[in-house]
C-alpha cells in the first residue's frame, strides 16, 4: 500500500493539464463581482453568475441564448418558444401579461423586464431577487444591452462577437448604398396598428433601422414606440415603401382600399412587404441582418445591378463532412458571396458520372456534382429580379462547376440546418440530405389556391449504395413525398393559406432529387419494397430534424406556438367579448385576457384546447359528425374553471373565420373565466382556478 501511494505522487501530466484547466476556469469565474447599469440607469452589483433567471423581454432572452448562457435561464415568455434550446424552459405567460404567481413560485435570483412591467418591479424591488430593466431605444443601446448581458453572464467575448457582426453588416449596407451614388432615397414607413394606422415614433429604434437601411423615415413630430398617423399625415408623407410583420396585414386590409390611404405610391405600386415579427420589433442580435434584408427590398433594382456589387463571387470557406457511400468523392458546405451576401451551398461530388432525376430539372445524365443552394433573404428580391437562370449561373460560377455536369436545388432554408439521415437494412443503405422551412408558404394540396409565393422550401436529395433503375428512381420520389407529408402531418404543420382548418402536405416550392447510385440493381422503391421503406424512414426523420433546426418547432411544441401558427390571438378574441357581464370590481378585457392566458399555462386546460384542435380538424374533414359529447366536455371545463356548475356555454367568440369546434372550446374557457371573475372578483394571476389533480405539474 505504501508503494502504491508513492506511485500516485509521481509526476502525472494528465493531472497537471487538469489543474491548469481548473485554474483557467476559476480565473474566468473570478471575474465577479461586476458592476452594471440597466436601461433606467440603475446600478447593480453582481457577485456571481445568476443561475435562475426569468426573462420577460424577448430581445433580452434572444441575446442570452446567443451568447451561450441559456442554461442560466429558468423561465421565458411564450414569444421565445422557438429559440434554439428553449424547449425545457418554463413559460410564464406573454410579454404584456406574465403570471406573477408563477414568477414568485420560481424564486428567481434575477428578473429581466421592461419599464412596462411596473407591477412586477414593485413586487420584487425590495427582495433578494435582482431587477434588471431592459429597454431598447436605439441601435447603439442594443449594442450596450448585449455588452451588459455579456458582462452579467461572463460571456463578454461572445457578446463582443455579436456586436462586431452586427456592425460589420450595417457597414456593409452603408458601403452598398454609397456605391449607388445616383440613389434617390425612398420614403419608407413601418406599418402598425389594427383599427387605426400607426407607426413608430421619431425616437424609436425602428425609425433608426429605416435610416440605416437607406430609407427616409417619417417625422410626424411624435415620440414613442408607437404613434397614430392621420390620413393627412399619411398622404403628405406619401410612402414609397411600406413594411410590417404578420399582424400588421389587418391594418392593410382595412385601410388600403379606402380613399386617401390607398392613394400613395407604395400602395399603388404594390411596394408592401412583411417580415418576421421577431426581426421588425426587436433591436437585438439580428439587427444588421434585418437592415440588410430591408435595404435589399427598398432598393431591389439597384442591388441587382452587377456594377453595384462590392464583393467578388468566390468561395470564402468550406466545411467538409462524410457521406458513407463508395461513389461519393467529397461532400461539403461551401460559403460564398453571391449578390454581395454570404450564400451557403451543399456540394456532393461523385467519383464517376451519375444519372439523376430532379423535380426541378427532370432527368439528367453524366452528372458529376449535385447539391442544394441556400440564398439568404437579402438576395431574394435581387435574385428574383434577375431570374432563375442568372441565379443558377451565379451558383455554378461560385462553386467552379459546369452546367452540363452539375445539378443544384435551391432553397431559402439555411444550409447550416441541413439534416443528414442514414437508414440501413443488411447490405442496403439509404442517405437523405434534407433542408426544410415551413413557416411561410406551407400548403395543403387539393385544398389551397396557389396564388402567392413566399420563400420556404423542403428539399430532399436521396442517395443509396445500390443502382436504382429509372422506374425505381421515379418511384423513390413518391416514397419520399409521402414520407415528407407524413412528417408534416405528425408535427401538425399548418397551411399558410388556411391554417385554421388545414394541416400542410408540403410547401409550394418543394423539390426532390434522386441519384441513381452504384451497385446491385434495384427495380422497385415503392411502399412494398425494403428500398422504399428505407427511403421513407430517412426522409421522414430528415424532414422532422430539418424543421426543428430551421424553424425550432417539434410535434410537442407549446400550445401558444400552435395558436400562433393558426393565427389565433387570445387578446384579439377577448377584445371582441362583451365584458359588460363582468361586475365593476372585476376589471377589463385585459383582465380577462390575463385570466385566459394564465389558464392556458396549466396542463389540463392546454391539453383541452390541444384536443379541441385535433377534433376540429377531423370535424372539418367530415370524419367527426356529432359534437354532443365534446360540448358536454366543454361545459365540464367551464365549470372546472368557474368553480361551480355551468349549465350553458355562452357565445363570446365573434370571429366567423374560427371553426365551430374551436369556437365552442374558447367559448367554454371564456364562460368559465368570466363566471369566476363575477363570482369573487378573484385575482386573475392565481393559478388554481378550477382545482385539478394536475395543478402542481
UniProtKB/TrEMBL annotation:
Signal peptide range in chain numbering: 1-30
Residue span(s) of domain Fe/B12 periplasmic-binding: 52-302
Entry annotated with the keyword Ribosomal protein: no
SUPFAM superfamilies, A to Z: Helical backbone' metal receptor
Biological process (GO), any one: cellular response to iron ion
Gene3D superfamilies: Nitrogenase molybdenum iron protein domain (3.40.50.1980)
Pfam families assigned: CbiZ (PF01955), Peripla_BP_2 (PF01497)
Keywords recorded for this protein, A-Z: Signal
Protein name per UniProt: ABC-type Fe3+-hydroxamate transport system, substrate-binding protein
Annotated source species: Desulfobacula phenolica
Amino acid at each position: 500500500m505504501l508503494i502504491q501511494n508513492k506511485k500516485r505522487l509521481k509526476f502525472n501530466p494528465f493531472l497537471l493539464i487538469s489543474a491548469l484547466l481548473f485554474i483557467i476556469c476559476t480565473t474566468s469565474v473570478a471575474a465577479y463581482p461586476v458592476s452594471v447599469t440597466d436601461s433606467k440607469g440603475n446600478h447593480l452589483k453582481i457577485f456571481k453568475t445568476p443561475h435562475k433567471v426569468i426573462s420577460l423581454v424577448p430581445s433580452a432572452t434572444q441575446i442570452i441564448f446567443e451568447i451561450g448562457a441559456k442554461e442560466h435561464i429558468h423561465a421565458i415568455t411564450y414569444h421565445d418558444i422557438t429559440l434554439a434550446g428553449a424547449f425545457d424552459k418554463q413559460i410564464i405567460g406573454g410579454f404584456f401579461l406574465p403570471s406573477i404567481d408563477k414568477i414568485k413560485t420560481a424564486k428567481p435570483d434575477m428578473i429581466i423586464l421592461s419599464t412596462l412591467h411596473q407591477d412586477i418591479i414593485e413586487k420584487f424591488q425590495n427582495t433578494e431577487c435582482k431587477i434588471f430593466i431592459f429597454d431598447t431605444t436605439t441601435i447603439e443601446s442594443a449594442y450596450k444591452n448585449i455588452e451588459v448581458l455579456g458582462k452579467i453572464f461572463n460571456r463578454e467575448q461572445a457578446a463582443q462577437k455579436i456586436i462586431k457582426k452586427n456592425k460589420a453588416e450595417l457597414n456593409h449596407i452603408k458601403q452598398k448604398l454609397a456605391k449607388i451614388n445616383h440613389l434617390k432615397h425612398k420614403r419608407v414607413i413601418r406599418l402598425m396598428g389594427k383599427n387605426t394606422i400607426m407607426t413608430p415614433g421619431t425616437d424609436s429604434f425602428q425609425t433608426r433601422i429605416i435610416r440605416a437601411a437607406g430609407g427616409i423615415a417619417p417625422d410626424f413630430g411624435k415620440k414613442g414606440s408607437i404613434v397614430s398617423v392621420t390620413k393627412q399625415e399619411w398622404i403628405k408623407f406619401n410612402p414609397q415603401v411600406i413594411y410590417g410583420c404578420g399582424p400588421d396585414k389587418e391594418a392593410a386590409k382595412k385601410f388600403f382600399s379606402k380613399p386617401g390611404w390607398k392613394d400613395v405610391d407604395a400602395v399603388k405600386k404594390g411596394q408592401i412587404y412583411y417580415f418576421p415579427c421577431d426581426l421588425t420589433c426587436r433591436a437585438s442580435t439580428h439587427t444588421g441582418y434585418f437592415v440588410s434584408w430591408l435595404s435589399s427590398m427598398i432598393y431591389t433594382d439597384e442591388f441587382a445591378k452587377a456594377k453595384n456589387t462590392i464583393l467578388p463571387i468566390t468561395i470564402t470557406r468550406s466545411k467538409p463532412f462524410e457521406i458513407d457511400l463508395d461513389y461519393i468523392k467529397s461532400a461539403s458546405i461551401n460559403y460564398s458571396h453571391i449578390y454581395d451576401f454570404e450564400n451557403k451551398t451543399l456540394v456532393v461530388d461523385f467519383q464517376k458520372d451519375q444519372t439523376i432525376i430532379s423535380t426541378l430539372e427532370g432527368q439528367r445524365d453524366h452528372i458529376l456534382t449535385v447539391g442544394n443552394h441556400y440564398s439568404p433573404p437579402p438576395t431574394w428580391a435581387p435574385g428574383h429580379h434577375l431570374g432563375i437562370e442568372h441565379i443558377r449561373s451565379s451558383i455554378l460560377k461560385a462553386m467552379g462547376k459546369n452546367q452540363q455536369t452539375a445539378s443544384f436545388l435551391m432553397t431559402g432554408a439555411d444550409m447550416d440546418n441541413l439534416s443528414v439521415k442514414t437508414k440501413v437494412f443488411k447490405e442496403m443503405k439509404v442517405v437523405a440530405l434534407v433542408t426544410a422551412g415551413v413557416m411561410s408558404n406551407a400548403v395543403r394540396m387539393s385544398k389551397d389556391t396557389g396564388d402567392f409565393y413566399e420563400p420556404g422550401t423542403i428539399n430532399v436529395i436521396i442517395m443509396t449504395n445500390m443502382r436504382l433503375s429509372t422506374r425505381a428512381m421515379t418511384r423513390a420520389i413518391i416514397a419520399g413525398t409521402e414520407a415528407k407529408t407524413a412528417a408534416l402531418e405528425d408535427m401538425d404543420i399548418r397551411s399558410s393559406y388556411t391554417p385554421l382548418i388545414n394541416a400542410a402536405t408540403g410547401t409550394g416550392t418543394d423539390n426532390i432529387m434522386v441519384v441513381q447510385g452504384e451497385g446491385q440493381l434495384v427495380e422497385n422503391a415503392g411502399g412494398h419494397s425494403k428500398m422504399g421503406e428505407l427511403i421513407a424512414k430517412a426522409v421522414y426523420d430528415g424532414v422532422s430534424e430539418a424543421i426543428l433546426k430551421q424553424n425550432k418547432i417539434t410535434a410537442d411544441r407549446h400550445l401558444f406556438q400552435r395558436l400562433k401558427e393558426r393565427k389565433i390571438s387570445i387578446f384579439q378574441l377577448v377584445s371582441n367579448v362583451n365584458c359588460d357581464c363582468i361586475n365593476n370590481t372585476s376589471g377589463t378585457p385585459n383582465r380577462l385576457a390575463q385570466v385566459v392566458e394564465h389558464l392556458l399555462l396549466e396542463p389540463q386546460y392546454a391539453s383541452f384546447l390541444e384536443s379541441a384542435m385535433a377534433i376540429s380538424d377531423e370535424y372539418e374533414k367530415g370524419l367527426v359528425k356529432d359534437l354532443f359529447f365534446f360540448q358536454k366536455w366543454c361545459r365540464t371545463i367551464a365549470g372546472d374553471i368557474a368553480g361551480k356548475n355551468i349549465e350553458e356555454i355562452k357565445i363570446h367568440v365573434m370571429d366567423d373565420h374560427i371553426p365551430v369546434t374551436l369556437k365552442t372550446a374558447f367559448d367554454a374557457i371564456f364562460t368559465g373565466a368570466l363566471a369566476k371573475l363575477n363570482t369573487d372578483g378573484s385575482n386573475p394571476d392565481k393559478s388554481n382556478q378550477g382545482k385539478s389533480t394536475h395543478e402542481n405539474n
